[in-house]
Structures are given as structure tokens and as C-alpha cells.
Amino acid sequence: MKFDVKRRTDPERAQNRRNQVLQAAAVCFARSGFHGASMSEISKEAGMSAGHIYNYFESKEAIIMAFVDLEIEHVTGQLRELEGKDDPLQSMIDDAPKHVDENLEPEFFQLPLEMFAEAARNPKIAEALRAGDQTAMNRFRPIIKRERERRGLPVDDQLLDGRIDTVVSLFHGLPIRALHRPQINRDSLVEGYRVALRALLLT
Fold first, then answer.
1. What confidence score (pLDDT) does residue 12 get?
2. Which end of the chain lies in a sparser environment, N or C, as judged by fewer CB atoms within 10 Å?
3. Mean pLDDT for each consecutive 10-residue tract of the chain (203 residues)?
4. 108 and 71 Cβ atoms separated by less than 8 Å
5. How far, rounded to the nearest angstrom, does the alpha carbon of residue 176 sit from its chain's CA centroid?
6. Of the candidates 58, 73, 95, which is a domain's last residue?
């Protein structure tokens, strides 16, 4: 019986250890970047030996891939929440302040920016991000199409693709704009996003 209990708790312990490594890596990556942060720096931040870390991640690239998976899970969760709204399109407009605030927060956008930069030079990371984006679009596009049809708005493929890509680009580009212009006025930005989203989604 004791052996069975141990077998049940080991996966939980292993997951806790993985999370410990990821939390440490997030600090190191935000401070030094993916390439600047070494495994020894991550192990020191995590409070465990580098050899111990390799029990959970075979390489630094594997840690980066874990963050890619977490980003995909985050987006999937947002889309799942959107699906449950009575009026998803209006909810996207109403929730502009929340999403703007998230994308202006360095703690939120530092790792995604590192992922995008890494994808530009690492085909494996690029492939994973593209696959995640395709999964998200397969879930997002039907929501937009259904709600536009409900309003009697055009839903041809080219139009939908253009509107969706523009909406996604608005949010992907916000952290870069915030880095260039740290004094950006948040309230004016929210209003601008509401105007843009209303035009993209409801016309």
C-alpha cells in the first residue's frame, strides 16, 4: 500500500519540481534573455543543482519549449472563456482595458517577446509557435464567423482572415510600442483599442 501511495505522489512531486525550475528560469530569462541565461544561473535561482534540473528538462531549449506550451495554454484558456460569453465580440471590446493592461505589463510580455525573438533563429521554436497559433485560430475563427453571421455581417474567408490577423497583430505589437514609448497614455490607448476593435469586429 505504501508503494502505491508513493507512485501516486511522485508525479505531483515531479510537477512541483518542474514548476520550481520554470519559475526560476522565468526570472533568469527576464533578466538575461534566453541566450544570456545559463543553466548554472537557472540552477542557482531554483536552489537545485544543474544535474538535478536535467532530471526534468533535458536542455535549456526544453525549458523554452515548456514556456511555449504554457503560452499556448494561456491563449487556449482565454478563447475558452470567450466562447462562454453571451456576446463574444462585444466582450472583446468591453475587455479592452484588461487586455491592454496585460500587454503593457513587463512581467506579462517579457517571456513572449523572448519566444518571438528565439523563433526568428530557432526553427523548432518557430514551428511550435506556428502550431500553437494554428490551434488558436481554429478555435478563434469560428467564434468570429458565428457572431458576425448572427449580426448579418460579411464572413467571406479573405475578410475574416484579414480582420482576425489585424486584431491579433494589435495585441502582439503593443508590448513593443510600450517599450519604445514607456510614457504612453493608457486611457487613450484603451479608447483607441475600443474604436479599432469595434470597427474590425462589428462592421
1. 85
2. N
3. 47 88 92 88 90 89 91 91 95 94 84 88 93 93 97 97 95 90 92 96 97
4. no
5. 15
6. 58
Count CA atoms closer than 13 A to 22's CA, side-chain side.
18
**Residue 104 lies in domain:** 60-202
92: enclosing H helix or E strand: helix 88-94
Distance of CA 149 to the CA centre of its chain: 28
How far is it, in rounded angstroms, from Cα 137 to Cα 182? 31
Task: Find the CATH number of the domain harbouring 42.
Answer: 1.10.10.60
pTM recorded for the entire structure: 0.82
Question: Of 115, 35, 29, which is closest to residue 75 (Cα–Cα)?
Answer: 115
Angle at the Cα of 76 from the Cα atoms of 59 and 29, rounded to 5 degrees: 35
Compute the distance between CA of residue 88 and CA of residue 126 in angstroms, rounded to an integer.
29
CA angle 156, 158, 164 (to 5 degrees): 100
Distance, C-alpha 201 to centroid of its chain = 22
Helices (H), 151-185: 157-180
Task: Answer yes or no: do 98 and 137 share one domain.
Answer: yes
Residue type, 32: S
Question: What is the distance of C-alpha 83 from the center of its chain?
Answer: 18
* Single-letter code of the amino acid located at 174: L
Helix (H) or strand (E) holding 11: helix 2-36
Q: What pLDDT was estimated at residue 178?
A: 87
Are 25 and 67 found together in one domain? no
